[in-house]
Amino acid sequence: MPRLWTTAVHFVSAMQADPLGLDDSQLPGFFHAADAASLRGQRIALWGNRVRSAGAVAAAIGGALTLVVGSFDLWALVTLVGFIVAFGAELVLGVRPPERKWYMARAAAESVKTLSWRYSVGADPFFVTLPAGDAEKLFRTRIGQVARQVSEAVAPPEGDGAAPTEAMEFLRAATTAQQREVYLRDRTRAQRDWYTRKATSNARASFAWRATLVGAELVAIALATLRFAGVWDVDLAGVLAAFIGAGAAWLALKQHTTLESAYSLTAAELQKQDATLTSALDDDWARAVADAEEAISREHTMWLASRSDVNEQIGK
Questions:
Q1: What pLDDT digit, counting tens, does each position of 186-231 carry?
Q2: Which of 228-231's residues contact partners 24+ apart within 8 Å by CB, and which partners?
Q3: Quick one: pLDDT at residue 282?
Q4: What are the backbone angles phi and psi of residue 172, rounded to the nearest 5°?
Q5: Which of 29-33, 39-43, 162-166, 311-315 has the lowest mean pLDDT?
Q6: Which residues neighbour 27 within 8 Å (Cβ) at sequence distance 6 or greater?
Q7: Quick one: pLDDT at residue 315?
Q8: Short-list 89, 93, 96, CA closest to 52
Q9: How many other C-beta atoms can be found within 10 angstroms of the C-beta atom of residue 142?
């Protein structure tokens, strides 16, 4: 009894010393491994596409101009270097496609996050009525399933990456009222605000890129007209065509317009869920959380389906 009493006192004291909450830093180790792998894949994919586009535009510039020094055309050298750079980037993107690892790792990270929140507030399938050992065993099993599905993209973290963290256990042991407060603050509203910000930033980026491409197309039309009329003999219209093609490819990769719509819709859904979660009775709490997590999962599933052939329902 004394040992049990000491453990209980320590547990309560820890909860009182540290305000209840759950952020990304307090999620299991496998989340951090997947998140890091996703960011690494995203960085390589975006830089590879930037370098490939820059190489193509540089090659077009070199092909449009001439500067002969001795027996060498320096702009021809620019063309050669541009094509070599674009070819190298194409090899990097084609031999070991970073996009696939980016998408798979992001799917894994989001799956671990939703499993962690479900566990922490006793939502399906980690109901608070489950014995503690059974709930943890089920959580570890589900994390293990995610890890196996994305093993080619995410290396196992050091230590026990599938264990519920201390913050998760504290929140799971809290009252429903406390869980509701934390879930609304750190999950639903934080996620809603994130989607709102991202929808706004994607709308701005989409407008900026569209305006830039329209401007480039108008300039290209003007230059092509002048060249046709014999007023202008430099083929800068070809350079602008290369720039426009690169810009269109970048827009296809970033999908600003699609993401703006998806993020706005998910933010609206989470706003509705806020009212449902706030008014949910204790008996309906687990179902209300599951519905909120489904709203978040739907957005990510749509994002994944629109970007890759990774169609597995990871972690569901």
A1: 999 999 999 999 999 999 999 999 999 898 888 888 877 887 787 7
A2: none
A3: 86
A4: -65, -30
A5: 311-315
A6: 112, 113, 116, 165, 168
A7: 47
A8: 89
A9: 20
Average pLDDT estimate for 245-270: 86
Structure tokens at 308: 């890759």
| 250, 252, 253, 254 alpha-carbon torsion, rounded to 10° | 80
Q: In the chain, what are the helix, strand and coil shares in percent, each to the nearest 5?
A: 80, 0, 20
State how far the Cα of 60 lies from the Cα of 289, in Å rounded to an integer: 54
Alpha carbon of residue 90 to chain centroid: 23
Alpha helices in 65-163 (DSSP H): 74-95, 98-121, 132-149
Please give the model's pTM, rounded to 2 decimal places: 0.80
- What torsion, rounded to 10 degrees, do the Cα atoms 276, 281, 284, 289 define? 50
**CB neighbours of 65 closer than 8 A, spacing ≥ 6?**
75, 234
